Each structure stands twice: as C-alpha cells, then as structure tokens.
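Lab notebook, bench 4. Continuing the backlog of folding jobs that were queued last week. Each job is logged with the same field layout so the records can be merged later without manual cleanup. Today's entry covers Type II secretion system protein H, a 189-residue chain. Filled in by technician R.K.

JOB TYPE: sequence-to-structure
TARGET: Type II secretion system protein H
LENGTH: 189
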Amino acid sequence: MSHLYPHPLHRGSRGFTLVELMVTVAVLGIIATVAVPSFTNLIRANRLTSSANEMVAMLQAARSAAITNRARVEVCPSTGSTCAAGAGSRWIALMTKKTGGGDVVTVLREASLSPAITVSASANLSGASNKFTFSPSGFSSVGANGSGTVSLCSPAMSGLNAADVSASIGRISTARRAASSGCTAPTDN
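JOB STATUS: finished
OUTPUT FIELD FOLLOWS
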C-alpha cells in the first residue's frame, strides 16, 4: 500500500544554501549599521527627557508640599540629606516646618538624574547656592531673585540637546534648546 502523504522527513527538504545565508547576513549587517546610531540617539534623547521630567516633578512636588504643609521647601543638589554647593546629578526637596521646639527639616523627595546628563545652573540659581525655594503661598524664589533655571544637557547629542527647567514665581516650565557639545549654561527668565 502506498502512502498518499509522504512523511515530512522523506520529502526532499533542504536547508539554506551558503549564498542565501551570506545574503541574509549582509542584509542584517546593513540594517544594523543604519539602526544602531539612530537607536543610540533615541536612548540619549530618552535619558534627557526622563531627567527633565524628574526635575519638573521634583519642583512641582516641592511647591505642592509648601502649600499643603504651610512650610518652606527648598530644592537643591545634594550628596546626602543636606544641600550641596555644586549643581550635580542628585537633587533633594527639603521641607522646613516651624514648630514650638524649633525647625523640623524633612527630606520630602530625592532624585538621581542620569550620569550621562550634564547639569548646569543659570546665574540666578548659582548665585543662590543652587536652591529653588518655595514659600507657604506656593511662590518660588531663587535667592533674592524671582526665577532661576537648571539646564540638563546630553553632550553627545546633536541639535536640541538641552532641557532648561525654570521656576519663576511659582510657575514651573521647560524649554528645549541647542547647547552645543560644551553644554552651555542657561539664561535666566
């Protein structure tokens, strides 16, 4: 009795030829050559956006906490649980609430920005020891000034490689700009 459907192993199946395999590898190589630089820029842009969003969230949380708790809240760079002098990649929000026994200082939030991001401060912000201060009314100040800007920059990116995050009298805003590979400092509002 003959079989109408031969067994799959007996059908005369064949694998890839060496030429087919080499053409496939060449096509994959070309696609990888085009895709890798684009993917690298995508990763850099996402790091920049993520860091800018984290800074905006930090400032908004500080403003909200100042209003809710009727206390002064400062956002500043830090190496621990106190403010540091230089603008770095770790920032904290400190709430100072007056009580009968003195001031109680609480760390409300902390953020670590991507190490691939360069952080720089505007003239107003650096002149105020890099501190954004929110009063119980929700208004912000930067030292004796009403506004300040922190710039987050990806030096390896081209084009709009910086995100400037500003606090101006309680209003928090962002703007993208080209800061060159040297990551130039932002201007004040």
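OBSERVATION: The beta strands are 72-77, 90-99, 102-112, 118-121, 132-134, 140-141, 147-153, 162-168, 171-177.
SIGNED: R.K.
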